[in-house]
Design a protein that fits this description.
heterodimer; A: 496 residues; Alkaline Phosphatase, subunit A; 14 helices; 35% helix; B: 1027 residues; alpha+beta; Jelly Rolls; four-stranded antiparallel sheet; 19 strands
């Protein structure tokens, strides 16, 4: 029996080797689409061994149906961007600026401790104005001039909602499907279900950036990209600026890549001997894991090295993209990851929590992200990758139409607001130049077509070819789902 | 499909069909099917129940539904349920297609047979008090104790054989890792082998005795108990500030080491505060249910937080002690188990009577109720510590060897003060302090002026352009007094002085509004124009806000000067970002300006009088001046840092063992909160009021008049309780076999897995109780079994038929937990500092990880920025590594450690590339390899590569290498030797990782070569595995 087992492993490695050389020789000359397809073929060639992890394959039977999107880039705007100022102003607000929000609109809404003691709730219009954009004349605020120019490529959902009103539960909810801890994040679910698209990168990668509107922004936590009850091999791997983009990636001082290769060869040899002696497939899986680690030692620095990008890239994404760790650089990195077949890339940009000094903070915050967000969509389109790459832009909730603090005071801002907020998407099977859902005159309650955050998540899964109801993981006696226990709807109207 | 092999049936799970000859057992064969596919709509949840039909009881199943019944026992044709199950009409079919639940044909056959055989129901097994089963008579004579009779009978049922005993070396490695979490030493292995040959069973028993008596036993057991109890050193949620709970950890270690009976262990942790005349120890124990996350975030709602805390206590307590997923009944009746929402809140009530507040725990001060208490760790090392401290202090007090050299260097430095010094004005591109509400302006002279400084803690980020063509050696921050009241002052606050807690700098070829935490410029020194008592400028070099610089005067201009470790070339890196953090209340100044400078700082790192002494030639010193200089040397010379670190660490250790420290505890509020059923679990939707009570489906509380938490605790450990003992023995079994007898160790309910050995579970549970809940006796029983001692190799047949080894037909094999992997590397290298207990430590960790996610720069919360410890704290066992919930140690997380946000009963054992990067490249492991290699070179014969390799291999894997393995290693060794010989510089670098002293007297090349060999050995799959 043993020789068989080893033959299979060897065979598989030979296959991988062939694909790697293909990658090395041809990839540079291929467009992103083709490259993605080429790398996707790496998923074939299972050993049939009971190797629990890592596996490049997803679950058998997934995707459930033909996916429209092969990969996702989620530009998560952490802290709660002001939908009123950015996407959802009303002429009504222009007229009623400064008037008190009627109780009938507020309707006994639960307020955070930040404003629950306030005596009045003066309505604040979109402070920087905005304009009708795109062929369908959708309204986008003036602090996002580049995104205004993308209106024809986006679906804007203005009727997002969540029950949560504070950051920790809200951001946990939208990323893991539950306000409670312990659940897997969306990226971890996708890694678990769909597996890796290639042999050089994990399926789920995470990038952080600090907002310059508010610094520090509300804290983040590793659970947002964690695996929860899913196997921990599916947790998001963070890519950081600096010498070690992935933690512990660099060989120690005095150890060259050649030396490491020889060490791994000997290690692999000894591990195989031992696996054979005791019949342990887990040891063979470990040999593979070490090989992938070795590949990552070149694939990751190659990914993070922008020196092969032409000047035009930085004209598109902005000069900030040259500085590692900025949102702009992370957007560019996300495009490079998409080209390399990373299944799910998630950017977390902090600092959207404008309780105070919104006049000062929000324009800076917008400046961080505006050009690069638009550039990413443009760039993917240029590369022919937008059609199967879903870009999502949004946060965990919106902000109140009323002022936190005295109306017009320099220190005033807007409080958290979960009853409605805006998320936009582009590419990956959603309609282009489309609006979905509306709010009332005060941009306070949803008027039509509510989209709960679990509906958004169900829709994202649908675009990836997954029926969210059938995508489950048994834990604590329950068939857990990313979309939770309550009913979630796929928003069919926004599908292209 | 008819399943031929009996074992295949088992491996298909309990949803297969029992062999025809064997009668169906409802709990084993039928309940899992009904639970999975029917109970969701036809189970215990009254509100979610469809068609008024329940199938979890016979009464429900045979109830008259209007002329027909769901099930008519013995009559398939009259059983409506059966027709629905086999219907081909989508509207009729059960379970309905839209549920995505499907019955397999095997499952349908089982249900058919069950109805035909009379639809016999059984109460759920886990809710029945276990009877001590008779130990079965197995055919074979294999085995050492009762456990083996059960295991063998089960194997025989499946026509399988147990495996042979593992080799003695494997046995002692397995046992030592399992009982202490540390590997055996080479000597321990050798002496056991000899002893085992000579004395057999006695030798094994002695080894067990020795290891159970080791203080490391308590540490090993605490590791898993900390996961269950969600122990952490920070509060969690978003801000995640620091807390002190390590006294509770010490209590757990000590409880295990003194073999506290499990009933007492449970009662003290759940309700120690309610015991008559509760001792300090019993109060500390109650920290178990204060380990949950706590928030003080502004904007959160206290009532909601308190609801979350109590819910966490319910979830944790019910899973850990009862194997019940009670949390499922927080929002609605349990879908699968007989726990109503009312049961849930009645249980919740026990944990809702504390005096805790809904918004508490800021500033590193424990959320109440908290107490001051002493550690339970024995202080028998105290005499040694005191002796060592006296010796070290006198060593420091007499240190003079390096004095003249130091004095000469310092003198030179003083002479060169201000050499080539030149200030360079910078251009201010951006100044921001977004979280501060008030205005400020950048004046024409590039200074920053705030007319109304704020009281809070605010950081200001300055994005600056450096002048071209300069070598920049540092920055200077100047503070200018402004008119205030009748005079002038630096700040408008009572003391009038700014307080700078830290300054962070980064540079780049692009302007940056914020400091890049991953590319900070290191600062070599901080000086100032003056400082007030205890607030030296060096305080800003520590990024925490514990120490700060504060000038001596508020009316004069003041300056703070920071020198870079390496100068910055303003042509290649023209943009500098500096963040100045006024991280204490009332510390923000009116007016300041940042400039760059070249050359030597004009100010001294010493206070002026000392600087004056040091500037003089040694020969000119008066005796008093010499004494001043000497004292300064002893207090500040870098070469004495290790000595001072040792003194500081040992002094702290003495304090840990002798002084009171804070820890959170349980109490009962003078006016306890009332508990209501909460509609859909919402804190603001109270329904009916409830009183403390246990779930109806479980045994009643003896005294239910006004039941207390103590009554609850006693109820749990009543010998007749059906769950507590089973759950406890199953959990301990899991530690030694990798999987529980019930694989779902947190769920003994309807959705839990059927036990692999139900009789064995009950035998162990009843025996455990009969032995007075003796945990060490239980462990001894388990590791004394032949089942435990089997070889863990797997044949092809074993792998195919029983891949998860549920039948225990071979020895258990699993990857070591995260903690043991690091501890093993520390132990074999000799770096391990085996002190027991005490506060958590902060060993090596990549820079910037806390800052990038935390509230650093805007809060008084502690643990927002990581500062690495020094000296022995780098080498403590991993259960003492700080657990920061929002950013746990990445090397631990790579190996499936959990973030302790919630109770976790079983960790994963994944196998990933990130793990490889840790054990290959993490400085902790690289240093361990280097130190191990140095030991090897010193302790083995230099002429004999072969022998030395064998010794190294054996020291790490605890076995001798085979010839083929040796050959592979020899070839690697000779390659490495050739490489490092041709590149001695690389060799020198390769043996310099880590803060432990560099090996003296060793050839760098040989040391580097053997360091690589050691790294490879530490990365062997076998090393990472307990086989």
């Amino acid at each position: 029996m043993k020789p068989n087992l080893f033959n299979e492993i060897e065979k598989r490695q030979a296959q991988l080797m062939t694909r790697r050389s293909l990658f090395g020789n041809i990839a540079a000359g291929l467009g992103g689409m083709a490259l993605g397809n080429l790398l996707a073929s790496d998923a074939a060639g299972a050993t049939g061994l009971d190797v629990r992890a890592p596996r490049s394959e997803g679950l058998p039977g997934l995707p459930h149906f033909a996916p429209k999107a092969k990969r996702v880039i989620y530009l998560f705007q952490s802290g709660g961007p002001s939908h009123v100022d950015l996407f959802d102003n009303k002429e009504f607000l222009e007229k009623h600026h400064g008037s008190d929000l009627p109780d009938s609109v507020r309707g006994g809404q639960r307020l955070t401790g930040m404003t629950s003691g306030q005596k009045s709730f003066p309505v604040v219009k979109a402070m920087w104005g905005g304009k009708r954009c795109g062929d369908h004349g959708t309204w986008i605020g003036n602090t996002l001039p580049h995104i205004q120019g993308m209106a024809d490529d986006m679906t804007i959902v203005r009727s997002m909602w969540t029950e949560a009103i504070n950051h920790d539960p809200a951001v946990t909810y939208i990323n893991t499907g539950s306000q409670q801890m312990g659940h897997g994040s969306m990226g971890a679910w996708l890694s678990y279900g769909l597996g890796r698209e290639n042999e050089n990168f994990p399926a789920y990668m995470v990038l952080l950036s600090q907002g310059s509107g508010k610094n520090p922004g509300q804290p983040l936590f590793s659970r947002l990209w964690g695996s929860g009850y899913l196997p921990s091999s599916h947790q998001g791997v963070m890519l950081r600026p600096g010498a070690n983009p992935v933690l512990y990636l660099q060989n120690p001082p005095g150890v060259s890549r050649d030396a490491r290769r020889r060490l791994l060869d000997t290690l692999g040899d000894l591990n195989r001997q031992q696996a054979e002696a005791v019949g342990d497939p887990e040891t063979l899986a470990r040999v593979e894991a070490y090989e992938m680690a070795y590949r990552m030692q070149t694939s990751v620095p190659d990914l993070a090295d922008f020196s092969d990008e032409p000047e035009s890239t930085f004209e598109l994404y902005g000069e900030e993209a040259r500085r590692p760790g900025t949102f702009a650089a992370n957007c560019l990195m996300a495009r490079r990851m998409a080209q390399r077949g990373v299944r799910f890339t998630q950017l977390f940009h902090r600092g959207w929590d404008q309780h105070i000094s919104i006049k000062k903070q929000l324009p800076r915050q917008c400046q961080d992200v505006d050009q690069a967000s638009a550039a990413l969509v443009t760039d993917l389109k240029r590369l022919g990758m937008l059609e199967d790459t879903l870009v999502i832009w949004g946060g965990e909730f919106g902000r109140t139409v009323y002022s936190q603090g005295e109306l017009g005071a320099p220190s005033s801002g807007r409080d958290h607001h979960g009853r409605c907020f805006t998320t936009w998407m582009a590419g990956g099977g959603v309609k282009a130049g489309f609006d979905y859902g509306t709010t009332d005159d005060y941009a306070y309650n949803i008027a039509e077509d509510p989209v709960h955050i679990r509906d958004l998540n169900a829709t994202i899964l649908n675009l990836l070819g997954i029926d969210h109801e059938r995508f489950t993981f048994k834990f604590r006696g329950l068939n857990q789902r990313l979309t939770g226990v309550e009913h979630a709807h796929v928003i069919k109207d926004i599908l292209a | 499909m008819k399943i031929q092999h009996p074992l295949l049936f088992l491996l298909l799970g309990a949803t297969g069909i029992a062999a025809e000859a064997e009668p169906l057992k409802f709990n084993r064969d039928v309940r899992p099917i009904l639970s999975e596919t029917c109970f969701h709509c036809h189970g215990p949840d009254e509100h979610g129940r469809k068609a008024d039909l329940r199938l979890d009881s016979l009464a429900g199943a045979i109830a008259d539904l209007g002329g027909y019944q769901a099930i008519v026992p013995g009559d398939l044709k009259k059983s409506e349920a059966w027709w629905r199950i086999i219907s081909d009409d989508e509207d009729e079919l059960m379970p309905p297609p839209k549920s995505h639940l499907v019955l397999t044909s095997e499952q349908k056959q089982t249900l058919k047979r069950w109805i035909e055989e009379g639809a016999v129901y059984e109460d759920h097994w886990a809710y029945q008090e276990p009877d001590k089963p008779k130990v079965p008579e197995s055919k074979g004579d294999w085995g050492k104790n009762e456990i083996d009779r059960f295991v063998l009978t089960r194997l025989e049922d499946e026509e399988m054989q147990p495996s042979a005993e593992a080799a003695p070396r494997t046995l002692i490695r397995r046992l030592t890792l399992d009982l202490t979490g540390l590997p055996p030493t080479a000597d321990e292995v050798q002496s056991f082998i000899v002893d085992y040959v000579q004395r057999g069973e006695k030798a094994w028993q002695d080894a067990i005795d020795r290891l159970l008596a080791s203080p490391h036993f308590g540490e090993r057991m605490a590791v898993s108990w900390m996961d269950l109890a969600r122990y952490a050193d920070t509060n969690g949620y978003s801000i995640d500030g620091g807390r002190d709970m390590w006294l509770w950890r010490d209590w757990v270690i000590q409880a295990y080491n003194t073999n506290m009976p499990f009933d007492q262990f449970a009662v003290e942790q759940l309700a120690g505060d309610l015991l008559p005349d509760a001792t300090e120890s019993q109060l500390i124990a109650t920290g178990f249910n204060r380990n949950h996350m706590i928030t003080h975030e502004g904007g959160t709602i206290p009532e909601e937080n308190l609801t979350n805390y109590a819910a966490d206590r319910v979830k944790t307590t019910s899973e850990v002690f009862l194997g019940l997923t009670m949390a499922c009944a927080q929002c609605h009746d349990h879908k699968f188990d007989p726990i109503s929402q009312k049961d849930y809140y009645s249980f919740f009530s026990f944990f809702n009577e504390l005096s805790d507040k809904g918004n508490d725990g800021n500033g590193g001060i424990n959320a109440g109720p908290s107490m001051m208490a002493r550690s339970m760790i024995p202080d028998d090392e105290l005499a040694d510590l005191e002796r060592e401290l006296v010796a070290l202090k006198s060593e420091l007090a007499e240190s003079a060897d390096g004095f003249s050299k130091w004095a000469a260097e310092m003198r030179k430095r003083e002479k060169q003060r201000g050499k080539d010094f030149a200030m360079h004005p910078v251009e201010v591109l951006d100044v921001s302090s977004p979280n501060r509400p008030g205005p400020f302006e950048v004046l024409e002279d590039e200074s920053v002026l705030a007319s109304k400084p704020s009281r809070g803690k605010y950081a200001f980020s300055h994005s600056l352009r450096l002048p071209p063509g300069k070598k920049i050696d540092g920055i200077r921050v100047r503070f200018f007094p402004e008119k205030h009241g009748d005079g002038k002052s630096l700040t408008p606050f009572p003391e009038g002085t700014p307080k700078v807690t830290t300054v962070l700098v980064s540079v780049g070829d692009q302007p940056a509004k914020q400091v890049d935490y991953h590319a900070q410029v290191l600062l070599s020194q901080a000086t100032a124009s003056s400082h007030s008592e205890g607030h030296e400028p060096s305080g800003v070099l520590d990024e925490r806000n514990l120490d700060w610089w504060e000038p001596a005067s508020a009316t004069e201009p003041q300056q703070l000067t920071l020198t870079f470790s390496n100068p910055v070339d303003s042509d290649t890196q023209p943009y500098l970002t500096a963040m100045v953090f006024f991280g204490r209340s009332n510390s923000m100044p009116f007016h300041w300006k940042i400039d760059a400078f070249s050359g030597q700082d004009t100010e001294s790192i010493f206070p002026e009088p000392i600087a004056a002494v040091i500037a003089k030639a040694e020969s000119e010193w008066t005796p008093a001046e010499r004494a001043t200089a000497m004292q300064t040397y002893r207090e500040t010379a870098p070469e004495l840092d290790p000595l001072r670190t040792r003194i500081a660490n040992l002094s702290e250790r003495v304090d840990v063992l002798t002084k009171p420290h804070p820890t959170m505890v349980m109490d009962t509020a003078p006016k306890p909160r009332e508990t209501h059923i909460l509609d859909r679990g919402q804190y603001d939707a109270p329904l009916e009021k409830v009183v403390s009570a246990t779930p109806d489906a479980l045994p009643a509380l003896p005294n239910s008049e006004k039941a207390t938490r103590l009554d609850l605790a006693h109820w749990m450990v009543d010998p007749s309780h059906p769950l507590t003992s089973r759950v406890a023995v199953n959990r301990i079994w899991t530690l030694f076999f990798g999987t529980g007898i019930v694989a779902t160790s947190a769920d003994f309910g309807s959705q839990g897995e059927w036990p692999s050995h139900p009789q064995l579970l009950d035998w162990l549970a009843t025996d455990f109780v009969a032995n007075g809940w003796d945990q060490k006796a239980l462990v001894r029983e388990i590791v004394s079994s032949a089942a435990y001692r089997q070889d863990s190799s797997a044949t092809k047949e074993q792998r195919e038929l029983d891949p998860k080894n549920r039948l225990v037909g071979r020895g258990p094999r699993f990857r070591l937990p995260a903690e043991f992997i690091r501890d093993q590397a520390l132990a074999v290298s000799g770096l391990l500092v085996p002190r027991i207990g005490g506060p958590s430590v902060q060993p090596y960790q990549p820079a910037g990880l806390w800052k990038e996610v935390s509230h650093f720069g805007s809060t008084g919360a502690t643990k927002q920025v990581f500062t690495q410890d020094k000296g022995e704290k780098l080498y403590r066992r991993s259960l003492y590594t700080i657990m920061k919930r929002t950013s746990p140690h990445p090397a631990m997380m790579a190996f499936d450690a959990v973030n302790r946000e919630m109770c976790i009963m079983e960790r994963g054992t994944t196998n990933t590339p990130l793990q490889a990067l840790v054990t290959l490249n993490d400085p902790q492991f690289v240093e361990a390899a280097r130190v191990f290699a140095a030991r090897l070179l010193r302790e083995t014969d230099s002429a004999d590569d072969h022998g030395r390799l064998a010794a190294a291999f054996e020291a790490i894997t605890n076995r001798e290498p085979k010839e083929a393995e040796l050959n592979a290693m020899l070839s690697f060794l000779s390659d490495e030797r050739q490489r490092y010989r041709s590149d001695p510089e690389a060799a020198a670098k390769a043996v310099s990782v880590g803060e432990s002293p560099l090996a003296e007297g060793l050839d760098h090349v040989e040391h580097a070569v053997w360091t690589q060999v050691s790294t490879m050995l530490l990365n062997l799959s076998e090393t990472l595995t307990r086989s």
